[in-house]
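Notebook entry, structure prediction.
Reason for the run: the old model in the group folder had no record of what sequence produced it. Starting over properly, with the input documented here first.
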Amino acid sequence: MATQHSRSAARLMMAPAVILLMGWMLVPLTMTIYFSFKRYLPLRGGDLGWTGFDNYVRFVTSTAFWPSVQATLVIVGGVLVITVVLGILLAMLLDQPMWGQGVVRILVIAPFFVMPTVSALVWKNMFMDPVNGLFAHLWRFFGAEPIAWLSEASMTSIIMIVSWQWLPFATLILLTAIQSLDSEQLEAAEMDGAPLLKKFYHIILPHLGRAITIVILIQTIFLLSIFAEIFVTTGGAFGTRTLTYLIFQRVLESQNVGLGSAGGVYAIILANIVAIFLMRIVGKNLDA
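New structure, fully documented this time:
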């Protein structure tokens, strides 16, 4: 049992790491809020003084603001649905005994370790190119006209690319949860003659509740700041400009750090709203 002296020593040893982490998080946040109230143009005069809430008003009244929020939420929602559904199916498949099971699992998880820019370029040039892409050849094989994915189905393309990156993560978490399932429950259900769908809905799916919650929460945090995939594929065109990409464009176009900082604050607010919503709706499984 820990004594008061040992607890004090533990806090003292942890203090440097905690202070470093707090500074790493709070310093950029403080600077973002500070510059959001200033007109700061590095290439056109530098610090031009305080503007109050002018940057916030300019950013939120922009005609591109709400479409970018909508695009962000559509991408996040689409990726979550695909990764959770396919992740469950893949996890159940990988849990079955098969030849070369270890190799198959490594191949399934491998895309998660590919850099977003690299995977986006691979999809753009090798799969979605309307002339020489794999999908174009496949379409021609079946006698159909190839699709210019990044212009005609731009949102679908982004969701497919990002889902491919995050599916291994969801599969790994869900596979771990499935492997922790008590096999006696499934054996009892089989002895009672329960069909496969009933075993899935009444035994497997409830057991995966916490794992699904973790997948959704972690992925949402990262997906709200999606940028690289859009930058190297559509460049924010064809309705794929997310809030993060809009901030990037506004800073580049106007060279106004204050305007971009205000957009960053809006992005933080959006992330917190979504996180609170998910914790209330989905996060209840953590207490189950």
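Summary: The radius of gyration is 24 Å.
The old model has been moved to the deprecated folder.
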